[in-house]
From TrEMBL, chain A:
Signal peptide residue numbers: none
Official protein name in the record: Calcium and integrin binding family member 3
PANTHER family for the chain: CALCIUM AND INTEGRIN BINDING FAMILY MEMBER 2, CALCIUM AND INTEGRIN-BINDING FAMILY MEMBER 3
Keywords, ordered alphabetically: Calcium, Magnesium, Metal-binding, Repeat
Origin: domain of life: Eukaryota
InterPro entries reported for this sequence: CIBP, EF-hand-dom_pair, EF_Hand_1_Ca_BS, EF_hand_dom
Native source species: Bos taurus
GO molecular function: calcium ion binding; magnesium ion binding
TrEMBL record, chain B:
Residues making up the signal peptide according to the UniProt record: none
The name this protein goes by in its record: Transmembrane channel-like protein
Protein family membership: Belongs to the TMC family.
UniProt source species: Bos indicus x Bos taurus
Pfam families xrefs: TMC (PF07810)
Subcellular location: Membrane
InterPro entries on file: TMC, TMC_dom
Topological type in the membrane: Multi-pass membrane protein
């Protein structure tokens, strides 16, 4: 027994431990399976990724405390997200209280929507929420300015930024009320077939 | 201004904003049409209801794909009208939760009526958090079990079907899990996408997709043709020298690689009674492969068309797309920084283009542009035709040339010339960019693609013509094997050239760009040219499978190696693309190119072979017949003898062989196409009208808001104290009356939001 312990590294041992708990967890994952676009195996893999973010916080036996939240700083340091200009908004949109701290459910939800199997409407809905910085259910000029600034990292001057926002509103605002509603946004996404493949985070 | 009808509609809408007591008789009819606008106003009214209302908006979406969503969207619309009409809203001090309860109730009821597959899909597509989805599913299951308990006995048939469908679903789940686990190159693709973005990733995805075709063809031909042949293999008396790998001739001529090796007999082992007709197996296997490829291509093409087809008359400049279609797959820090810089550059260019849009070209400039286009087209077509003529001339004189030069490597001259043409001429076409100017950059890409595909398909066409007209008719030996060998050599030479180009050429270009002429910089991955090379190779493979059944296996190995070589070269020698490349549109076009000139050309060639040409007399499975297709005729004749297979004969004679059947079928298809075309035209008109209606409603909304603000301003000035008193009264009134007066308060909220907006 001790020989075994010395032979196996702690992470491998924890994996072995995890497999024994996994029977209970697999019930949990089966429950989640139909709510996301992932298979059961992928959900397990995502759980291990989540657990790796904060091993002290998240126990291997998730069923014992399912409400634990991983703070935003750790989520934002994931390799898939750490260089994304919108990582804070993504975490805020998918977290429970809008503060960026995510439970496992939020985590799975986020990657499920950002996976390639989510339909266009679902992605458009969440993209709209991400670009809506002030959470008023409309993308107004201020939201657009924030988006453009994040996208171009201060390369453009303020006049250019406001000109861009004006042009975008010209193009996309269908009912001419000075801001984009969800319908305008979805209408515009219909004309951008690349959206499905670009609004996609591979994990 | 506003017409009478419009005024009525709008007044109803304003009052309809969540007022519990509705007395307008017309409102219930207006609710279904007005729901999209309705949901907008609901958004404004109850920000706390954001979860519920968002899902309403989402469920009211006119989803083309999600008929299931529409199914439960209509009960939702009705349910919303119901809740509004329902004055017995209990516990309206928490209107949010009761609203939600009733919404949820209606949603659950609509979900129960769906099949379980649709239900799972509908729940998954809901924009709710995981917990809500789980609760929803639990409630649906509970309701469903309650209902099913009431049903005393299920029909035996229904039970059977239920268990079958359950088993099938489980099987499909397990299969999809298995397929996902053996998905090839997942991590590599992630790295490529992270550094170079979706556009370059599309090339590698295309490569992987073609690999799947080849794997499937190989498995089928291996199981049904090669293995039976291997069991009755004759001894190979030829000598093996190393040159066979290049020429394909020599030792390989008498192996399973080529058509000529296959027996035409019926294989029977130990008189066990089970016999295997090689002729039929050969023709049916190749035919089956092609049919599966055909349907797979068709479905992929249809799916891409459906997702990515843009209605051309609503094409916009695209600055909104630049802003909102940020590539989330890019994950490397340097790549992200570069992408941001490129995006800024592109936005600036786009802005300057928009600002200069109104500048019209003078007649002189237009004439110069037009003549440049014409000249470019003439030159490119001329070059293509010259190359084809050169290839034909070379092919015609090949036999003589081979007789004069006894070097066994001399057969490689023709493939060498073809590969050189394929290497040099596309790059020459790319140089036209310096002379021609296009209004839209995508026109440039399309023109380049069309010129290249014209060149490549012409070369393949000329070679096929040569093979089928000259080699097949004049040759004394096994002409099928000869053609197989030619195709093998072409493929191999193409592969060698691609390897050399990736390993040496791109490396040299990087050295030149970084050290010698630093202004050039690193090169960008030319997706179009690389994809066309893949299409060219795949066309050759499809043609060649009939003459050389091992060709899919060879192409499999080639693609495998090419993936890694291109990957390494990409990481070392390239920089991420600077311009936005419309990956999905291009993919649609590439798959269409794979289908239209490429696959249909293959089908034509093989059809001519099978129906018109005489198989060689002393080699291959069809020796001795006067046409390849005669094997099928003979088989049908033998089936005619046996009484138990007469239905096959009937199908053959009346459905496949009958002209009337195809005539009627064509007529039906044409009628359906015409009907769909008319429906599409009607829908285009509808879209335009609805678009105009949206604009008009927006204008009306602004007009009314202005009017309301003015009225409120006047009211405020007239009675300042009464104004505050009214608000306090509102809060004291009963919940039902609150709804009536919610409307003005909400519009006031909207007005205050408008005021805040310019500040923000």
């Amino acid at each position: 027994m001790s020989l075994l312990y010395h032979m196996t590294s702690p992470s491998v041992l924890s994996r072995i431990l995890a497999r024994s708990i996994s029977l209970r967890q697999s019930a949990l994952f089966s429950k989640n399976k139909d709510c996301t676009f992932f298979t059961r195996k992928e959900i397990m893999r995502l759980f291990y990724r989540y657990q790796d973010l904060a091993p002290q916080l998240v126990p291997l036996d998730y069923t014992s405390c399912p409400d634990v939240k991983v703070p935003y700083e750790l989520i934002g340091s994931m390799p898939e997200l750490k260089d994304n200009p919108f990582r804070q908004r993504i975490a805020q949109v998918f977290s429970e209280d809008g503060d960026g701290h995510m439970t496992l459910d939020n985590f799975l939800d986020m990657f499920s929507v950002m996976s390639e199997m989510a339909p266009r409407d679902l992605k458009a809905y969440y993209a709209f929420k991400i670009y809506d910085f002030n959470n008023d259910d409309y993308i107004c000029a201020w939201d657009l300015e924030q988006t453009v600034t994040k996208l171009t990292r201060g390369e453009l001057s303020t006049e250019e930024v406001s000109l861009i926002c004006e042009k975008v509103l010209d193009e996309a605002d269908g009912d001419h009320d000075g801001r984009l509603s969800l319908e305008d946004f979805q209408n515009m996404i219909l004309r951008a077939p690349d959206f499905l493949s670009t609004f996609h985070i591979r994990i | 201004m506003l017409s009478g009808g419009q005024v009525n509609e709008i007044i109803v809408e304003v009052e309809h904003v969540p007022s519990g007591i509705q007395s307008h008789p017309s409102s219930s009819q207006i609710v279904p049409e007005k729901t999209p606008v309705n949901s907008n106003s609901i958004l404004v009214s109850s920000i706390s209801d954001s979860d519920v209302t968002d899902s309403q908006i989402f469920s009211n979406r006119n989803d083309k794909k999600g008929k299931q969503l529409l199914q439960f969207a209509t009960p939702l619309k009705e349910s919303f009208a119901l809740t509004l009409h329902n004055s017995e809203n209990t516990g309206l001090d928490t209107p949010h939760t009761s609203h939600e309860n009733i919404q949820g109730q209606k949603l659950i009821e609509s979900l129960i009526t769906m099949t379980s597959r649709d239900r799972i899909k509908a729940i998954r597509n809901q924009p709710r958090t995981m917990e809500e989805k789980r609760n929803l599913r639990k409630m649906v299951d509970k309701e469903k079990s309650k209902k099913s308990r009431r049903i005393l006995e299920l029909n035996c048939c229904a039970q059977c079907l239920n268990s079958i469908s359950l088993a099938y679903r489980r099987f499909k789940n397990n299969l999809s899990e298995l397929l996902n686990s053996i998905s090839l190159w997942q991590k590599t693709l992630k790295v490529i996408g992270g550094k170079f973005g979706t556009s370059v990733l599309s090339y590698f995805n295309f490569l992987r997709w073609l690999l799947k075709f080849n794997i499937f063809s190989f498995i089928v031909t291996f199981s049904f043709i090669i293995i039976p042949q291997l069991t009755v293999m004759e001894k190979n008396h030829l000598q093996f020298t190393g040159l066979e790998f290049l020429t394909g001739a020599g030792y390989f001529t008498n192996t399973v690689m080529y058509y000529g090796f296959y027996t035409n007999s019926t294989i029977q082992h130990d008189n066990s009674g089970a016999s295997y007709n090689m002729q039929l197996a050969y023709i049916f296997t190749i035919g089956g492969c092609l049919v599966v490829c055909f349907f797979s291509l068709l479905f992929s093409m249809a799916r891409y068309f459906r997702n990515n087809f843009i209605n051309p008359h609503i094409y916009s400049r695209g600055i909104a797309k630049l802003i909102f279609c940020w590539d989330f797959t890019v994950t490397h820090e340097s790549a992200v920084k570069l992408k941001q810089k490129n995006l800024s550059t592109e936005i600036r260019e786009n802005l300057s283009e928009i600002l200069q849009e109104n500048v019209k070209l003078t007649f002189n400039q237009q004439f110069i542009r037009f003549s440049a286009h014409v000249a470019a087209w003439v030159v490119s077509s001329g070059v293509a035709i010259t190359c084809c003529a050169a290839v034909y001339y070379l092919a015609e004189n090949n036999l003589q040339f081979l007789a004069n030069h006894s070097n066994p490597g001399a057969v490689l001259l023709l493939p060498f010339v073809v590969s050189c043409i394929n290497l040099v001429v596309p790059r020459f076409y790319s140089m036209f960019r310096l002379v021609e100017r296009y209004e839209m950059p995508r026109h440039e890409v399309y023109t380049l693609l069309i010129r290249n595909i014209f060149l490549k398909i012409s070369i393949i066409g000329i070679l096929c013509y040569y093979w089928l007209n000259t080699v097949a008719l004049n040759s004394e030996e096994c002409w099928e094997t000869l053609i197989g060998q030619e195709i093998y050599r072409l493929l191999l030479m193409d592969f060698v050239f691609s390897l050399a180009d990736s390993l040496l050429g791109e490396f040299l270009r990087r050295i030149i760009g970084m050290r010698l002429i630093t202004s050039l910089g690193l090169q960008e991955f030319d997706i179009a040219r690389n994809v066309l090379e893949l299409i060219y190779a795949q066309t050759l493979v499809w043609i060649g499978t009939f003459f050389c059944p091992l060709l899919p296996f060879i192409q499999m190995i080639t693609l495998f190696i090419m993936f890694y070589v291109k990957n390494i070269s990409l990481m070392m020698n390239f920089q991420p693309p600077s311009k936005a490349w419309r990956a999905s549109q291009m993919m649609t076009f590439f798959i269409f190119l794979l289908f239209f000139p490429s696959f249909t050309g293959v089908l034509c060639t093989l059809a001519i072979t099978i129906w018109r040409l005489k198989p060689s007399a002393d080699c291959g499975p069809f020796r001795g017949l006067s046409f390849f297709i005669e094997s099928i005729y003979r088989w049908i004749n033998t089936l005619n003898q046996t009484p138990s297979y007469l239905w096959v004969v009937w199908i053959y004679q009346n459905l496949i062989g009958s002209v009337h059947f195809f005539f009627i079928l064509t007529l039906i298809v044409l009628i359906i196409t015409y009907l769909y075309w008319q429906i599409t035209e009607g829908r285009k008109i509808m879209i335009r009208l609805l678009h105009e209606q949206i604009i008009n409603e927006g204008k009306d909304k602004m007009f009314l808001i202005d009017k309301l603000i003015k009225l409120q301003g006047m009211e405020k000035r007239a009675n300042p104290t009464l104004f505050t008193l009214e608000r306090r009264d509102l809060e004291q009134w009963g919940p039902q009356r609150v709804r009536q007066h919610d409307a003005p308060r909400d519009l006031r909220f909207r007005q205050s939001f408008q005021e805040d907006n310019p500040k923000a």
